[in-house]
Fold this sequence. Notes:
- By secondary structure, this protein is an alpha/beta fold.
- It has 2 domains: 2-112, NAD(P)-binding Rossmann-like Domain (Rossmann fold); 122-275 and 311-320, 2-Layer Sandwich (Dihydrodipicolinate Reductase, domain 2).
- The protein has 9 helices and 15 strands.
- The strands form 2 sheets. It has a 9-stranded mixed beta sheet with strand order 8-9-10-7-11-12-13-15-14. Strands 3-2-1-4-5-6 form a 6-stranded parallel beta sheet, with helices on both faces.
Amino acid sequence: MLKLGIFGAGHLGKFHISNWKEIDGIELVGFYDPNDQIAAEVTEKFGLERFHDMETLMDAIDAADIVTPTQFHFPVCELALRNSKHVFVEKPLANDMDEAKKILKLVNEANVKFQVGHVERFNPAFAALKNKNLNPMFIEVHRLAQFNPRGTEVSVILDLMIHDIDIVLHLVKSDIKNISASGVAVMTETPDIANVRIEFHNGCVANLTSSRISMKKMRKMRLFQKDAYIGIDFLDKKTEIIKLKGEGDEDLFSFDIETPHGVKTVAVENPEVVEQNAIKAELTAFRDSILSNQPTVVSEIDGFMALDVAHQILSKIRNTAVEQKMS
């Protein structure tokens, strides 16, 4: 049995505890949270032992699940890694790039498994495309949420957009050429709505819009590549592919369209979306990587790259705001 401890038992931490209790091969040793009210709720609901200091819990486990607010990711990761514990840490990886660089160094020295909680990688709508040939040259993303005070200690870039940054970097196998961005702080002291354009050296362009002050929820990504359009609805768990009909597409719904180069036959494919609990899936994948000694699905490098781009975006937004004030 893999002995595991939870660090941070707030809103998301409770979801993690609930899912870990359903995953085979895991012994939940206990949790650490400095908030007495939260601790009492967790103890009563889950019957899980509360540890009053992180060091004692860390000594009793093989792996740490870190679900604290972002500003505490680094110190808890550091404690775990210096004690050679496997680590799952929620996104974003760290509070800033200096902390992120230190985490990469510590992971390398500890020689343990490390996974970052970019949960949309495990969304059923995205998972439905795992066997498809994805080579997007234009990406359009909208991630809109209604305002919720929870999570506003960081900008909308680090709160919401970082999900899409991670997926875009996962899909586009090219270095970034240029980033342009604008954002506005409306309800908080950091950007609550932002629009970003990322240009890659291979010619791909990604336009990302994120807002946490929307009247409606939306989590959609559209991929455009040669001969195909792919739509991913992360919220409603739907995926569709519209493409030029080719070999193996005989059973798909199809229709003809007129183009300047003649009639083309278009096929519509709806890949099977297998319903799954994305949080449980990512935690299970972390367990599997430890037990089978395989690389994690979302590594510390993935988390670092997404955070790096997020901070480049924040820098662009700050610079744009300064330029506007000076003009």
